[in-house]
Amino acid sequence: MAANLVLVRIDDRLIHGQVVVGWAKVVMPDFIAVANDAVADDALQRSLMELATPAHLGLVIGRVAEIAAACRRAPLEGKRVLLLFSTPQDLLRAVESGLPVTRADVGGMRFSQGKRQVLRAVSLDAADESCFRSLLKKGIQIKVRMVPTDEDADIAGFLLPERNDSLPG
Questions:
Q1: Number of domains in the chain
Q2: 19, 30, 36, 103: least buried by Cβ within 10 Å?
Q3: Is 18 part of any domain?
């Protein structure tokens, strides 16, 4: 028996108000799991996430591979888990390592150099789009939704058409 993934979310802010106030009240998890290599290796970031997590919720922070494995066995076995990733690349790595995901929501993906803004809080670059295409090809639904009351939108509607840069034979 694996964890019951009540919400799989990509949000570069990881634990913040929308997650602990909005989403956690709707999906009612037992645990919040943060799958992020950098945060797992940073004691200060881990401490800040612990402080931001409501006392009634368990918190597990680990590297992507560790959290993907933990969701398939104890201590998360049979628990309701809200699973957070900061990038689609991390979600794809977890799925490719065997994490059973059928749907993921996209929250915040900040604008930075080389990204194009597709919504107020979602910006994508070519690597993000490639990961989303790979996830979609694996049959995973990817929806964009900031807060639980928002209507969701399919990520495919925000991806640029794939280019075929190969030269004719």
A1: 1
A2: 103
A3: yes
The three-class DSSP label of residue 18 is helix
Alpha-helical segments (H) within the chain: 17, 24-27, 37-40, 43-52, 64-70, 88-96, 126-137
DSSP 109: B
**Average pLDDT over the chain, rounded to an integer:** 92
Provide φ and ψ at 16, rounded to 5°.
Answer: -160, -175
C-beta of residue 66 within 8 angstroms of C-beta of residue 60: no
Containing structural domain, residue 19: 4-154
The token duo for 102 is 């059928």
In a domain, 130, yes or no: yes
Environment class of 32 (CB within 10 Å of its CB; exposed 0-12, middle 13-18, buried 19+): buried
| 167 assigned to some structural domain | no
Tokens at 53, concatenated? 């997590």
Marked catalytic residue, from 2, 4, 16, 136: 16
Return the DSSP state at 168.
P
Instruction: For residue 19, give the CATH number of its domain.
Output: 3.40.35.10
Would you call 56 a catalytic residue per the annotation?
no
pLDDT at site 108: 92
| Whether pLDDT at 74 is above 80 | no
Classify residue 156 by its DSSP letter. G
Q: Is the dihedral of CA 90, 92, 93, 98 positive or negative?
A: positive
